[in-house]
Structure formats: C-alpha cells, structure tokens
Specification:
Shape of chain B: globular
Number of domains of chain B: 1
Oligomer: heterodimer
CATH class of the largest domain in chain A: Alpha Beta
Helix content of chain A: 25-40%
Strand content of chain B: under 5%
Largest interface: A-B, 20 and 19 residues
Shape of chain A: globular
Distance between the termini of chain B: 18 Å
Order of helices and strands of chain B: HHHH
Number of strands of chain B: 0
Structural class of chain A: alpha/beta
Number of domains of chain A: 2
CATH superfamily of chain B: ACP-like
Largest sheet of chain B: none
Radius of gyration of chain A: 24 Å
Helix content of chain B: 55-70%
C-alpha cells in the first residue's frame, strides 16, 4: 500500500502575525516587526522579534503557551486527537527557569516545566494523545527535522495523524548567548545584504497537522513530498564554508520527494543574516541550482530568527504561499551582497508557486530541508514500510563503576554501579585538545564513542547519530547563567552557550567520528533514549549498509539535577551515566537485534498495559520469546511504575527473572541506555547469573531480553537473537 | 609591555583551558588564531569577554577582532593603548 502525507491543518503565532490571515497579509507586504527588546528589562537593548501577546504570570512558560496556541489553531478544523506528536524546541521552560535560578529558588516543583520535553508532554496532555510523543532538539534545524520525523512516522504506518509542533520563546539565555557570539546585527537582521552583521533573536510557534492518505482529503492545504537531514561534522557553530552539509540536506530532500531541482518554484532560505550562514547556504544553492535558480528569499529580516520554531513557522508560510501563489520578500536586504550571488526577491510578489524547498540549519552542523507541494498533482505516494529491528554491532556504557567491563563485573555480581565516575578518569583516553572546551556530558558522549571505536571489531564510522538526553548539558547551562547573573548581565561564556544546546554532544561525536548523515537529538525525561532508538529506526536510511550510532546519557549536576529530576532528589546516591549502541540494518546472517516496539503515554490511558502486551503479541508469545525482564522504575514514579509492572506480570504470568535495574545503576534520565547495553551483554552471556536472578543461574536458551520503562510513559525495547 | 605579555600568556592558557600549552610555548609575534596552539573563533570570543572583564577594553566586532588577535603582541598593544586611554 502506498501513502501520501498531507498537511490538513496549520497553526502559527509569530512576531509578524498570528493565524492564517495575518500571515497572508504579512507575506503580501513583507513589513518587518523587529524592534528593540521589550519582553524583559535589560541594560543591553538589542533588536528582537517579539510575539505581541502577554500571558498570565504563572508557572507555565511562554514556550508552552505559544506551542498550545499554534497547536489549537492547527487542530481547529480537525476535532479529536492525534496518533503522535513531534515537537521541536530548544528553550523549553528556560524563560521561567532562568528567573528561578536568579532568585535561588530551591523548590523542585517550581521547575516542573523546565525540560524541553515538557512542552510536548503539556500539549499531549491537552490533546489526550497517547503517543508516540517525541521531542527533537537540534537547535535551529529542529522544526524541519521534526517535520521529517512526522513524515516518517506516517510512512512507517506507526501513525496516521501526526501533529508536528515547534516553539521557542525569547529568554535571557538565547538573547545574551547569541550576543556573546557577536552574532546579533544591531540594526536588525538583513539576510544577504552587503552590510549584514548578523541575526535577530526572535520567538514564535507553528503547528502542522499531517495526515496519511491515498487520496487528497478535503481539508488538505498541501502535501509533504520529502525531507532530508545531514550533518556538517565540521564545527560546533560555524557552517561548512562550502555549504557541504546544506547541499546534502537539500539533495536528499529532493531525492526523497522524487523531484529534480528544476521542479522547485521557490526556495525559502534559512538566511539568518550572519555573514557565514548566508555565504555557506548560497554556495550550496548555487551548486544545486546551477542552471536556473527559482525565486528565493529569507523571512528572517522581517520576523527575526525564532530558533527551533523557524522550520515549522516557515513551512506554514510556504504552505500559504502555495495556496495563494505568493512569494515573500527578503525583508531587510536593500543592497544584495554580490559575494553570495543569490539575488533574493526584494519585494513581495504574486507568482505561481506549486513546489517549495525550505531550509533550516543549526548549531552542531545540523541541516534539514523539506519539499512541500500543492495537492494539484499526483504527489509522492510512498510504499508503506514498517520499521524493522536493527542489528547490534557494538555497545558500550558508563556508570558510577566506570566503563563497560567494570560496570558488568559489578552488575552481574548483583552489586551496585551507582555513583558519579570521576571526569578525569572518564576521558583519560581522549586527546586534551578535543576536550578542553567540553564539560561532563559531551565528555561522556565522546568517551562512549571512543570506546566503541576501540572495542568494535572492524569499526567503521556510523553514517547517522541519534542521541537521547533527558536534561542536556547541565554544567554548561548552569555556568552560563551564573556568569551572566554575577556580572549583572555584562559577561558570560560563549563556549558555555554553544555547549548548552541539547545537541552539542551529538555534534561533537559527529565531528569526532566524521558522521555526516542525520544527527538527531531527542529529549523526553526518562524516555529520551527510547525516543532516540525509535527515531533511528524511522530515520536511518533503509538502503544503506552503513551503521547508525544510538546513544543516551545524562550528567549529574550538584545544583541542577536535584531541582529538575525528581528521581535524583529521591535517590540515596547521586549517579549518572549512559550507553551507546552501534547498529545497522540486519544482514542475512544471524545476529542480535534491538527495537523500540512500544512507546505510549500513560496519562488517561487505563489500557496501556494491555496495549503493551498486544504490541508484543500475546502473554504466551511473551513467555516464549523473553527469558528475562529489565525494568526501569524512576524513583519519583516508583508507586506508579510498580503498579504498572505488577499489572504486566499478572496479565502475562511472566515467571522469569525481573531485574529492577535502577536499584543497581542509580537514578538518571538515560538509565535505560545503560540498561540496553546490559541487556545485550546478558543475551551474549545467554544466562542470568544467580546473584542477579536471586536464585540460581538461569539459562536464556536463546530467548531474548525485554527492557520495559514505566512511569508517565510505558515503553518496551526488545533485544533478541534473529 | 613584557609584563602584560607574560600576564596574557597565563590568562589565555587559563581562559581557554589549554591543558597541553605552557607560557613558554607562545611565540608572541606568531599567528595567534588558527596557529599551533589550536585557538579558533570560539576561543577569540571567550578572550573578548576576558579582556573586557579584566582590562575594561571592548572588542565588539569581527573586523576589529581580526586585527587585534593577529598575534599576542598585537593584542597586548591594543589592550595597553586602550586601557591607558580610558585611565587618562
């Protein structure tokens, strides 16, 4: 069966307008709304793009509010819920968190909306969506990357109706962060202008309701034909000077859409207004569209750069352009810089637009492009293809006990591996110059990647990288804010700002291993690694023998971990760690396979355990297939998790060893990444040692290991011999 | 000037966490950015913050930065000239 992916609802809130009609008016005029900062008080007043909307002064952050407005707008013609939500954000609840930290607030409940993943959870709660609920945080490419993920969820048959949402709000963190990088144009962004001096930080949200269909639904506004992802693997912030990654993302989007460059009627440029971005993007565009360039423009000179929300806001603008045959102006550009040689559209125009290519690029060398077309033609029907398990080539982990060998020695002996392994010992094998600017989390990621490289037989660099983290780089985040506050907002560390984005560690690993395929960072508390594994099965190209690296890690931070993560404040000993799996599509030979086969939200979902059992087959099949259960019960959700586990055990009559692994490895959001590595090693061992089973050695007899996550989500990862 | 140069060597090493560099490794007239020390554009921004904080000397644009950070000596001269200007 073939499937097409239609946009059947759009929602938008931006500095240049809210809702379809205001945005259409904006496209027709191109009037800018960039103006000096007003949202918060500061001695440093720079131009910003602000959404003209104030919210009640309560705990719910601006990012969440903006996201909900966009989501409601997109859903207004489609009552009901969705099968999945893919969220893009980088700031999450930072606008609230930074104020709380400034006031030294120590009550953890005040920080309940801090997590980037909490925005999607908030929307899922409002829409009563069971999920999957996935959050992508790849800095400024997040929005378009989320669209690719939503597209693949539909193409895999895992969802028929997906809401892709992106939201970021202005906050001191991004405002002073980009200022410290000297990337802000004091006159406001002027993309592709001869005198451009940088970007304008902005905010906003957009949502696209995507629906699977064989035929064009009545509500369809446009169709997503394809999208492409790539990584520069070149520099933490600067784009590749020749636009190599940008070119790859655009070419892949065109290939995915089954189109050639001549089919594109308009290019929505990333065009931030920084000297380097605009030059690099122009080189890539000029290479692909060497024969004839279609009309092209960036809207960021009018609204500024809404960071993670940019991709979806621009996808909505492109959809309206297609419906109304409009092309937006490249506001802010008065004297086009001859060097990029792009000739952007200087005034809005009416012009037939059928097919659009839209670009988003971000820190970490992340690139994403998407192709959107009107519903007039035959579209791009794609064969529905279920995701398959991936084969394990290698795996490594870190716990308080150290690396993989020390962890296993202790774990299999029934001993604890919790604690915080010393940083110096963690990265003793990494070159000093590689790690001199990196704090704990990226060093953990690099140590995992380095161990894989050293310990995997005939190691070859992975094509793509999927990285899950519940809380991101806490050390960099904290140090950035404290320096900012202590200097009365005069000084901070640009290095910490760069390192604070959730995808910074994945970017470092990509540079280290030279991985230029998709580079995706997912975040969602205790289920971040599951999101990464699920994303890998959806996004790692099917037609390649190259491998994919799936990782998850979280650091313990003395000030922040206890405030953000209820399980940390509930645990006896502070711990951190993570795990990394090198995977590929299975060959013909037998091997060990892994797959995230279940991922649903527990709230308002009384049948979630039955749904889990159904996804695994039946109670009998579960008994035949699995020889042990590794269960993750976060300390803050122990009562709820134990109840879910009891229900599962009662309904399946599962009588094999059940290992409550957090009791041995400690409490951290990505503990399941470590548990996955332990599960693989147990399967290799083919028995559960007596100290672990609590009785005697239990043979697995070729049966697999089931790794279950409990709490606010219920998840299942199966590890088995093919 | 020699004192300032020596002070800057220590401060650059500390600010940029150059674990494998000692003050003796600096060629004060050699290329500071993109040279043997492994200093890049992000480090320059970090040094800009340090210089403004410790010497009250502002380097707030890329063009100026390119001139000032040519070598450790050009940096020291710039700090010396602008520091004395503001203290006069």
């Amino acid at each position: 069966m073939k499937v097409r992916t239609f946009i059947t609802g759009i929602g938008i809130i931006t500095p240049v307008g809210t809702g379809y009609h205001e945005i259409q008016d904006f496209i027709r005029t191109g009037n800018p709304t960039i103006r000096p900062l007003r949202l918060f008080r500061s001695e440093t007043v720079l131009p910003t793009g602000e959404v003209n909307q104030s919210f009640p002064n309560d705990d719910i952050p601006r990012t969440h509010r903006l996201a909900m407005i966009a989501a409601a707008d997109a859903m207004k013609t489609n009552p009901g819920t969705v099968d999945a939500i893919v969220m893009a954000t980088s700031t999450g609840g930072m606008s609230v968190t930074e104020e709380l930290l400034r006031k030294n607030e120590t009550a953890p409940e005040k920080y309940q909306y801090h997590a980037a993943g909490s925005v999607a959870d908030y929307i899922a709660g409002q829409l009563r969506c069971f999920g999957p609920v996935i959050t992508i945080s790849t800095a400024c490419s997040s929005g378009t990357a989320a669209l690719k993920m939503a597209l693949e969820l539909i193409r895999s048959g895992r969802a028929k109706k997906v809401l892709a949402i992106a939201s970021d709000s202005l906050c001191r963190f991004t405002y002073f962060g980009f200022h410290s990088l000297q990337l802000i144009d004091p006159s406001g962004a002027r993309p592709f202008d001869l005198n451009r001096k940088g970007m304008t930080v902005s905010e906003g949200a957009a949502a696209l309701l995507l629906e699977a269909g064989e035929r064009v639904p009545e509500t369809a506004c446009a169709e997503i034909l394809g999208a492409g992802l790539s990584c520069d693997a070149y520099h933490p912030t600067a784009p590749h000077p020749e636009g190599e990654g940008a070119r790859n993302a655009m070419l892949q989007a065109l290939e995915d859409a089954s189109l050639s460059p001549s089919d594109i009627d308009y290019i929505n440029l990333h065009g931030t207004g920084t000297v380097d971005n605009d030059l690099s993007e122009a080189k890539a565009v000029n290479q692909i569209f060497a024969e004839k360039k279609p009309p092209l423009s960036s809207v960021k000179g009018a609204m500024g750069h809404p960071l993670a929300a940019a991709g979806l806001i621009e996808a909505v603008i492109c959809t309206i352009c297609i419906q109304q045959n409009l092309i937006p102006a490249n506001t802010g550009c008065t004297i086009p810089d001859p060097k990029p040689n792009l000739q952007p559209v200087l005034s809005p125009m009416e012009h037939p637009v059928d097919t659009v290519l839209s670009n988003s690029f971000g820190f970490g060398g992340n690139n994403a492009s998407v192709v959107i077309r009107s519903v007039k033609g035959n579209g791009n029907p794609v064969l529905l293809k279920k995701t398959s398990p991936l084969e394990v080539i290698g795996c490594e982990c870190i716990t308080g006990a150290g690396g993989t060998t020390s962890t296993l020695n202790r774990f299999l002996n029934g001993e604890n591996c919790n604690g915080v392994f010393p940083l110096a010992a963690l990265s003793e094998d990494l070159p000093p110059r590689l790690i001199r600017r990196l704090k704990r989390l990226p060093q953990m990621a690099l140590a995992l990647a380095d161990s894989l490289q050293k310990n995997t037989i005939s190691f070859q660099s992975p094509l793509s990288i999927f990285w899950g983290t519940g809380w991101g780089a806490l050390s960099e985040t904290y140090d950035f804010l404290i320096k900012l506050f202590e200097s009365n907002e005069k000084f901070t560390s640009p290095t910490d700002f760069i390192g604070s984005v959730h995808n910074a560690a994945a970017g470092q690993v990509a540079m280290y291993l030279k991985s230029k395929g998709a580079n995706i960072t997912t975040t969602g508390g205790d289920y971040s690694f599951e999101q990464a594994l699920l994303s890998a099965s959806l996004l790692h190209p099917v037609n390649t023998d190259e491998s994919v690296l799936v990782m998850g890690a979280d650091e313990y931070h003395t000030k922040l971990s206890g405030l953000f993560d209820g399980s940390v404040s509930n645990s006896r000993e502070n711990s951190d760690g993570g795990g990394a799996l090198l995977l590929k599509h299975p060959g013909t030979a037998r091997g060990m396979n892994i797959s995230c086969c279940f991922y649903e939200r527990a709230e308002h979902h009384p049948d979630i355990i039955q749904a889990l059992i159904r996804s695994l087959g039946s109670p009998e099949q579960i008994g035949r297939k699995f020889g042990a259960l590794l269960v993750g019960i976060p300390a803050s959700l122990r009562e709820c998790g134990e109840k879910q586990l009891r229900e599962f055990l009662n309904q399946t009559r599962f009588n094999k060893p059940v290992i409550d692994y957090r009791k041995q490895i400690g409490e951290y959001a990505s503990a399941s990444a470590t548990a996955a590595v332990i599960g693989i090693k147990l399967l290799q061992l083919n028995h559960i040692p007596a100290r672990l089973s609590g009785e005697h050695d239990i043979e697995l007899d070729g049966k697999g290991i089931l790794l279950i996550g409990t709490g606010t989500f219920v998840t299942a990862i199966e590890i088995f011999q093919s | 000037m020699e004192n300032l140069l020596n002070e800057l060597k220590e401060k650059v090493i500390e600010t940029l966490n150059l674990m494998d560099v000692t003050p003796g490794d600096f060629d004060v007239d050699g290329q500071l950015v993109g040279g043997d020390l492994g200093i890049d554009s992000i480090d320059v921004l970090e040094l800009v913050m340090m210089i403004e904080k410790d010497y009250s000397v502002v380097i707030d644009n890329k063009e100026l930065g390119e001139k000032v950070f040519r070598s450790l000596r050009t940096l020291a001269v710039f700090i010396d000239q602008n520091r004395s200007k503001s203290s006069q």
